[in-house]
Specification:
With 495 residues, this protein is an alpha+beta fold. It is built from 10 helices and 21 strands.
Length: 495
């Protein structure tokens, strides 16, 4: 009887333990809410682009008006708009091209809204370029996606590894894509009651059924560490949702969140080190190429496609805040900006068509210009090296007949310079070219050796040619100091 009770107790404990172990697993099973279920039922899975266009495919660049806090069309000093991207005519209209008139309309006289509306016109269009050349274009059909960088919060720059060319940075970024197709499907089926101002995580079943072009957006990070990053590349399910649906009447959008610590390669230029200014670039690629047609075998009949990534107000405002208040110790933030760039690969291999093509992709470059604080290098490297050099050159004022004293002093100064070089060598980047500081130290070595050579020469000549030794000593003392000052000035100022 007692044995039976023990067996029953054991089975009960086993059942309880097994039940608790199943709880986390069941919690990980992702359920779709009512909005997701409705979109699974009504959503059209063939969506790829949110706008059909029939025009000449010319788009203008953007710039931030910090005074009025608006993103506007970028213009030159004469108020003519500057081209961001041209889909069909890449020979005459390159990024940065100025457009003066559109079918005779002076673009400097109309506002941004009117310019964008005008460029949706179809038919034959005459454009006057900045060089006064007039070209004619015919409108063509194409599709457009314009992803939005809704917000970009630069939390901190953790580390700027100049030796390895790595930027370690913490940021929060949010991307959105307007999904009018999904909103129309809800309206058509009378499910507008499901729309609210909250976030709805896109569940696995909905993500699998429909097409989500926003997934293609990509940072140029060389390493993705899931322990310090939250984003779509996380293999395990994370606590915070990173791919959601939001409704802000009248816009129904998919929203993607990428945040945490990013590791990004940088191309630093240290030629002017330590008086250098560096440009930190965080590139965000749209992930989808823009092409004049989608069928290479029958290019005359197929529609083209364009994918953009455009910043809204949030990123500009947050970059301004970071510039005013940051925690960089060794650097000063000079400016921040967001620029559009077209990535052109003339030798792109398309695996679907098995051909080498020209691949065009639009990207955003978030640029942070920083300037190094030089006090550390001036007070701990440049000034001590200069003082050691002064000691070495002091021997030229010691009487030439005391050649032993001169020789000992100059050699001690040279050895001191060599020894001090080991003290600060970790503060100097190890590169395949010489920086300004490297040239200065090399120059100091050369000029530190001159008193040594003069002292050795004096000891060889002895007292027989004192007049010649004194004359040479005066000549070196007079012109050597001047030469050192001029060469040092040329190193730091003229190169």
């Amino acid at each position: 009887m007692r044995f039976i009770k023990l067996v029953c107790l054991y089975l009960f404990l086993l059942f309880v333990t097994f039940g608790f172990s199943l709880t986390p697993l069941s919690a990980q099973i992702e359920e779709c809410d009512n909005l997701n279920k409705a979109l699974i039922e009504y959503g059209v899975p063939k969506f790829n682009y949110h706008e059909n266009r029939n025009d000449i495919g010319v788009f203008y660049d953007f710039e931030w008006d910090s005074k009025n806090k608006v993103v506007e069309v970028k213009r030159n000093d004469d108020d003519y708009p500057i081209v961001r991207f041209s889909l069909f005519d890449k020979e005459n209209i390159l990024p940065g091209t100025i457009i003066k008139t559109f079918n005779g309309v002076d673009l400097s006289k109309i506002n941004d809204y009117e310019i964008k509306k005008l460029h949706k016109s179809s038919g034959k269009i005459d454009l006057q370029l900045g060089n006064d050349k007039i070209i004619s274009l015919n409108s063509k059909l194409y599709k457009l996606n314009d992803f939005k960088l809704t917000d970009f919060i630069l939390n901190s720059i953790h580390n700027i590894n100049t030796a390895q060319g790595i930027l370690e940075i913490s940021l929060d970024s949010y991307f959105t894509n307007n999904r009018r197709d999904l909103l129309d499907s809800l309206i058509k089926n009378n499910d507008q009651s499901l729309l609210d101002d909250g976030k709805h995580e896109i569940c696995h079943d909905l993500r699998k059924k429909l097409v989500w072009p926003l997934i293609s957006v990509n940072f140029n990070e060389y390493r993705y560490d899931a322990d310090v990053r939250e984003g779509l590349k996380n293999k395990e399910k994370i606590v915070n949702s990173v791919f959601d649906l939001t409704y802000d009447e009248p816009n129904f959008r998919s929203m993607r969140t990428e945040k945490g610590v990013f590791f990004i390669r940088q191309d630093f230029d240290f030629k002017k080190f330590p008086f250098d200014t560096q440009k930190l670039i965080i590139t965000i690629e749209s992930g989808t190429g823009s092409k004049t047609n989608t069928n290479f075998a029958n290019s005359n009949n197929e529609e083209g496609s364009v994918t953009f990534l455009t910043p809204e107000k949030g990123p500009f405002l947050n970059l301004e805040k970071y510039q005013k208040k940051n925690y960089l110790k060794n650097w000063k933030v000079i400016s921040t900006s967001i620029k559009s760039r077209e990535i052109i690969d003339n030798n792109y291999f398309d695996k679907w068509s098995n051909r080498i093509l020209t691949h065009n992709e639009n990207a955003l470059d978030i640029e942070i210009i920083i300037q190094r604080y030089v006090q550390h290098y001036v007070y701990k490297i440049i000034l001590p090296v200069f003082l050691i050099l002064c000691v070495a050159w002091y021997v030229l004022w010691i009487p030439t007949r005391k050649y032993e004293t001169r020789l000992n002093t100059s050699i001690i100064a040279l050895l001191a310079l060599i020894a001090y070089n080991f003290v600060f060598q970790d503060d100097i980047p190890k590169l395949e070219y010489l920086t300004h500081l490297d040239w200065y130290i090399l120059l100091s070595y050369i000029f530190c050796c001159i008193p040594v050579f003069v002292s050795i020469g004096s000891s060889k000549l002895g007292t027989k040619n004192q007049k010649a030794i004194i004359k040479i000593n005066k000549y070196i003392r007079k012109w050597g100091v001047l030469a050192y000052i001029l060469i040092t000035f040329a190193i730091f100022k003229l190169t």
